Amino acid sequence: MSRVNIEGRIDALPLEVQEVMRDIVAELNDLTRRIGRGPGTPENRIVGYRGDLWQRTDGGAAKQMIYVFEGTDGTTTGWQQLRT
Fold first, then answer.
1. Would you place residue 3 in the very low, low, confident or very high pLDDT band (cuts 50, 70, 90)?
2. Is pLDDT above 70 for 63?
3. pLDDT tens across 13-55, in order?
4. CA angle 60, 62, 68 (to 5 degrees)
5. Cα-Cα end-to-end distance for the chain
6. Confidence at residue 58, expressed as pLDDT on a 0 to 100 scale
7. E-assigned strands of the chain?
8. pTM for this predicted structure
9. Cα dihedral 15, 16, 20, 26 in deg (nearest 10)
10. Of 16, 18, 42, 65, which residue is least crowded by CB atoms under 10 Å?
11. Per-residue pLDDT, 6
């Protein structure tokens, strides 16, 4: 399931409705957090959304590397390695 983005599409709605819609979308997107895995770092390769995780699977100590996405949603930069 892909992420939902409503920015720019709800501007004509009353502010109270916009707030409710944003809350609903945030909850929906929280339900679709992704956990990916594969060789190498995800930085500049894997599109991420805040909270996504990446497990690195290649080579020795690299198998213990986990990354969390802290960048701008829908981009490939912003992956931070968690120290294990």
1. low
2. no
3. 999 999 999 888 878 777 767 888 899 899 999 988 888 999 9
4. 160
5. 29
6. 85
7. 35-38, 53-56, 66-69, 79-82
8. 0.61
9. 40
10. 16
11. 80
Give the tokens for residue 29: 């997107």
Q: What is the dihedral of CA 37, 72, 24, 27, to 10 degrees?
A: 30
* Element at 6 (helix H, strand E): none
**Residue 30, helix vs strand vs coil:** helix
Nearest to 58 by CA among 42, 75, 82: 42
Q: What are phi and psi of 16, to 5 degrees?
A: -65, -40
Non-local (6+) Cβ contacts of 30 within 8 A are 51
Which of 58, 53, 17 has the alpha carbon at shortest distance from 40? Answer: 58
76 secondary structure, DSSP code: S
- Distance CA(83)–CA(19), nearest Å, equals 37
